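R.M. (postdoc): so does anyone remember the format we settled on? I'll just put the structure tokens first.
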């Protein structure tokens, strides 16, 4: 699996929280690509973080009346990456110079970035994102995890680790029950339906949930993983993880919680639900970073063992390698959770 820059040609990835992008240029490493983000007149620009003149970082520059100005010689670029000013150029016609620009969409408090061809081809944001009502968002969290994107996504979609990494909080080992998990390939990823587990044995369920009538896990458009819980009382909860590779060994992680059909004000989620969810995230981050560090230090040539129980892993791997639809379109497993 490669999380290099070509990934930006295949989909949309979150670069930052909307509130974090201001008129002060900032550098961000996305899929191995150094970008500069800046907000000009309310609109976010994303350019390659390199002036084509002498390679100075545009993120060290500033906004001027003509655009984003390089700190070295003052060359200034617009939202499309076209150089609009070359201070000191005496002739009437300056050379045509531009810096690579990227497509940007803001939605639900997040800044999404893709290759410019995404807009030309009409490639929309993932349906799992556009289907969420921004008014139903209850929190937005960001972190940088020192682990590969594929491992983070598998961890989020994998329920078998929860008894050990989150004992008592998500599940208890002495309360396992069989359920049926069915994975189906979709146009932009896959969906896993779980049947046979109306309740969970952990503290999170006992405190904040009720009987479930549906549980699904979605993987969409390379960067999006989502858990959807539907309840007998008509409520629905979506937990979404937007994962953007920083490079091969680290990943920007953006998590959101959306709630429908249930009274859940932001202050209640912040003070009651979020501390426990944050503990779950911290536990996951800790084991993933520990595994990645040992892999780099001692076992760089070893490959992971994948069993039939590891339902999502081969499909995630195939998606990042561009061969998802070469796998079986549907597979069912019985898991003891």
């Amino acid at each position: 699996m490669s999380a290099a820059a070509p990934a930006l040609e295949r989909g949309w990835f979150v670069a930052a929280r909307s509130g974090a992008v201001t008129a002060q240029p900032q550098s961000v490493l996305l899929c191995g690509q150094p970008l500069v983000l800046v907000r000009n007149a309310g609109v976010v620009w994303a350019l390659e973080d390199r002036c084509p003149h002498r390679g100075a970082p545009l993120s060290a520059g500033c906004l001027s009346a003509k655009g984003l100005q390089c700190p070295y010689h003052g060359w200034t670029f617009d939202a499309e990456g076209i150089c609009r000013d070359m201070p000191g150029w005496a002739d009437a016609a300056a050379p045509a110079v531009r810096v690579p620009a990227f497509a940007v969409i803001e939605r639900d408090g997040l800044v999404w970035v893709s290759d410019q061809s995404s807009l030309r081809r009409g490639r929309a944001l993932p349906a799992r994102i556009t289907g969420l009502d921004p008014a139903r968002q209850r929190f937005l969290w960001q972190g940088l995890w020192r682990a590969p994107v594929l491992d983070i996504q598998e961890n989020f979609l994998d329920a078998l680790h929860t008894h050990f990494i989150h004992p008592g909080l998500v599940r208890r080992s002495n309360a396992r029950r069989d359920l049926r998990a069915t994975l189906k390939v979709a146009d932009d990823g896959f969906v896993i339906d779980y049947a046979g587990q109306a309740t969970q044995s952990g503290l999170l369920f006992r405190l904040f949930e009720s009987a479930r009538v549906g549980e699904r896990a979605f993987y969409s458009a390379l960067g999006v993983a989502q858990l959807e819980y539907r309840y007998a009382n008509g409520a629905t909860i979506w937990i979404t993880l937007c994962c953007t590779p920083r490079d091969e060994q680290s990943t920007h992680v953006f998590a959101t919680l959306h709630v429908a059909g249930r009274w859940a004000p932001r202050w209640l989620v912040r003070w009651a639900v979020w501390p426990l969810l944050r503990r779950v995230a911290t536990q996951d981050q800790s084991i993933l970073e520990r595994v990645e560090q040992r892999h780099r230090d001692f076992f760089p040539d070893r490959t992971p063992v994948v069993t039939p129980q590891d339902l999502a892993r081969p499909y995630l791997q195939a998606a990042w390698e561009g061969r998802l639809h070469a796998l079986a379109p549907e597979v069912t497993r019985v898991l003891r959770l």
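R.M.: ...and that's the designed sequence above, right after the tokens. Also worth knowing: Residues 164 and 173 are 8 Å apart (CA to CA). The chain has a mean pLDDT of 92.
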